[in-house]
Each structure stands twice: as structure tokens, then as C-alpha cells.
Amino acid sequence: MPDTLSTPAAPLVAPPFPWVPRWRTLLSSVALARDPIGNLNRAHANHGDTVGLHLGGIRPCYITRDPALVQHILQKNHRRYLKSDLTHGLIRYIGRGLLTNEGADWLRQRRLIQPGFHRQRLAGLTRLMQAAAAEWVQELHTRAAAGPAEVDIHEAMTRVAFRVISQATFGTSMSDAERDRLSEVLTQIQAFYVRTIRQPYLRPWLQGIGSYSRHEALSRELRELVRGYIRQRQQSGNSSTQHDDLLQMLLDARYEDTGEPMTEEQLVDEANILLLAGHETSANALSWLFYLLAEHPDAATQVREELQAAGLLSRPAAFDELARLPYAMQVIQETMRLYPPAWILDRVALEDDEFQGRPIPKGTLFSLYLYGLHRHPTLWSEPDAFRPERFAPGAQPPVPAYAYLPFGGGPRLCIGNHFALTEIQVVLLETLRQFTITPATATPVVPVPLITLRPQQGVWLRFQRLV
Ligand code: HEM
């Protein structure tokens, strides 16, 4: 007979996270594909910071904007989580490089490649960034010679960022036509890949109309283009004294244990991954940055005043001088809070785990919703407002812990974060030194979340010469 006097035992485990009923995700799967951000925000507002739903109406997944859970997965308990097949699926098209690799193989590659991104190396690469920025500003001068020029900023920044990453990777010998083709192939592969993930029910149809084989052919073309640059460099017998780029770094790197270099296949994979990871992310960050500055001319004026105070209004800032421009950096940080180019990250539990008493069975899929984390209504004051000062040293309230992760976190932190921040600073400063920026239309810009968060096509801004 049960002892009716004793209090019932407390449950050993906390209740699982809430779920959006499957029928509801199925009904709204088209709406979710059309407006993921609006739908995810609503799901969090209705159900809390971690909510389960079926991606594409099919795939069970927890979406979280809880900083403690994000930290648990990316940092504290990272060994229990891998990227999911959403990322690994890219291997088929781009290859197995740092971004898509896992386990011991990933760690070996990361240790090998990390020194290539050290500060000293970055100083050399900054000259390439300066050259790409000068070319863009020159183009603006030509277009704005007779009056303000209207520019589609996303189109322009995509070209600037691809110039930077392709030259930083392969040096300056690539022709414009070769660079355009490389960029085109990567863009097409990415767009196709996102479609297969976002709308998995289209896969049989895409198979039927030959889309998979067409994109596999593009992927082979990409590998052959990249292989061509690698062989050219090897045959020229050149060394790091002539080339201070990322390809030379990859070619010169030797594994600690064997003293051997990477194989050609590995070189192709890693070079492909650098192009992929370092292209669209930076282009989007730059586009959002100029868009926000056009909307907030006071912030642009403050950056210009900072340049003037540092004596850098009449010439480009050198690598070592960038640290003297803290407000410019705060503007960049705030831009990536509001519009994180990597807006969502995926992880899957490799084994059973638990978080705050809730069981997480092996195989559980998580989407770490950085966009939601960066605009969390209780973690940030005025979360949707553009306020660069929140990143000032000693700002009150301080930036909440693990709630700001534009470059990810834990051991898989973006290897190119300093590279990207330097590139964005250089392009920003060169532009603001010589131009004012205003919106060219009153239409608000809608973010389009693909693999990265890009502005809807056609963000038109007006650039006017200062001198
Ligand atoms: C604003 C620009 C950039 C943003 C916002 C960004 C963001 C990120 C994020 C969030 C991750 C972690 C992904 C995860 O944990 O699942 C990552 C990884 C990575 N990024 Fe970036 N990235 C940027 C620019 C770059 C650039 C310029 C490069 C190369 C030059 C680069 C190369 C990589 C690589 C190779 C990884 C994989 C690192 C690893 O797992 O070891 N990124 N990036």
C-alpha cells in the first residue's frame, strides 16, 4: 500500500523542452521556409528560449537562444557534440576542410593551419585588403565624379570580399574573369545546397530534373580551378619569400608528428573551405555595416571624427594603427550583433548528455540561433536598436556572457575572425574617409537567412564625395 503521508519524490529529471506540435510545423513549413526569422522569433516568444520543432515538417530539432545551453554545447561540453549533416552535407560539394571536418582529423588540421592566421601574418595580408579597398573607393570616385552615386551595396561588397579572400588565398595573379567564375561557381553551389536543406521534400524532384548532377559538375569545376592554382604555384618553385598568402602558408605547413606536408586533395579541400567561409560572411557584414551607417549618419560622423583625432583622415590607416580607432570597432561589433552573418549554427549530440537536469539523448539535433541570442529581449536593453556604445570598454550594462557570438565559440571559433575584423575595418575606414553615405530608397531592407544572413538583393545606398 502506498504511504499516503509522505510527499511525492521530486522528479529526477526536469521536463523536456517544449515542442511545437508537428502538425503545426507541417502546416507552417512553407511560411517557415519563407520567413525563418519571424517564425523562429514567434516560437521562442510563445514557448521559451529552447523549443523543439520539425525542420521542413520532417526533421526534429531544438532551436535555442539560451546562452547557457549554447555555451554548454559549444564550449563546456563540446566533446559531446559534432556538427550535423546540415554542415557535413557540404563535403559533397566543397570538400572536407576545417569548417566541415571533425574529431582528430579536424584538430590536426586546425593545429597545422592556425599559425597562418597569427597577427604577424595578418599584417602582411592587410596590404592586400588595403589594395582591394583602394580599388573599391576608386570605383566610387569614378561613379560619383559628377554627383552622388547610387550603389547596390551587397553586389559591391560581394565583389570586394571575394577579391580580398581570393587574393589573400592565391595571391594577386588571378585575372578578373577567373575570379568572377570562381565566385559564380561557389554562389551557385551554396544556393542549391541551401535549397536542398530548407525544402527537403523537393529532393526527389531536384534529382529528377538533374540539379544534383549539374551541381556536382560545378563542384568538380571548382576543385579543378583550385587545383590549377596550387600546381601553378608548386611548379613555379616559389616560396614564402615571394608569396605571403594563405596558399603558401598551406603549402609550407608541415605536420608536427611526420614532418610531411598536406596532400594535394587536402590542399584543395582547405583552400575551398577558406574561400567559402571567408567570402559571403565578410560580404554580408560589410553590406549590413554600410546599410546601418546610412541609416545612422551620426555614427558615421563619429567614426570620421575618430579618424581625424588619430590623424588618419588624409591617408589609409596602417595595420598597427587600427587599434587606435575603438569606436569604429564598436560600430562593426554592433552591426554583427544586429545582423550576425552566421545567424545559426548546427550541432548534434554524439552521446547521451544532460543540461540542467534535462536529458539530451544521443542524436538530438540543435540549431544555435545566434540571431535570436543577439536580440534576446531580456539579455539586451533595446535589443533592436543600433547602439555601438554598448561595446565600449566599461559600458553599463556589460555585454551579457555568451550572448554575443558572431564568430562562434569554444574550440571551433572562427579561425578567420581577426582576418575578417581587419578586412571590415580597412574597407570601412577607406570609404568613410572619402564619402558620406545615405539611403537611396525608403524601402526597409529585409534580411534573407540562407547559409549566411544576407540583405535582400538590391540594397541601394547613395555615396557622395567628401573631397
Ligand atoms: C564577418 C566574417 C565572418 C564571420 C561572421 C564568420 C563566422 C564564423 C563562425 C560563426 C564560425 C563557427 C562555425 C561553427 O561553429 O559551426 C566560423 C568558422 C570558420 N571560419 Fe569564419 N567567419 C567570418 C570570416 C571568415 C574568414 C575571412 C575566414 C577565412 C579567411 C573564415 C574561416 C573560417 C573557418 C575555416 C572556420 C572553421 C573553423 C574550425 O572549425 O576550425 N571565416 N566562422
UniProtKB/TrEMBL annotation:
- Which cofactors is this protein said to need? heme
One GO MF term on file is:
monooxygenase activity
Record-linked Gene3D superfamilies: Cytochrome P450
Recorded hits in InterPro entries, A to Z, give: Cyt_P450 (IPR001128), Cyt_P450_CS (IPR017972), Cyt_P450_E_grp-I (IPR002401), Cyt_P450_sf (IPR036396), Cytochrome_P450_Monoox (IPR050196)
Sequence positions that bind heme: 414
The keyword Mitochondrion is assigned to this record: no
Superkingdom per UniProt: Bacteria
- Stored SUPFAM superfamilies: Cytochrome P450 (SSF48264)
Mention any Pfam family matching this sequence.
Answer: p450
Keywords, alphabetical: Heme, Iron, Metal-binding, Monooxygenase, Oxidoreductase
Family named by the database record: Belongs to the cytochrome P450 family.
Q: State the name under which the record lists this protein.
A: Cytochrome P450
- Organism field: Hymenobacter rigui
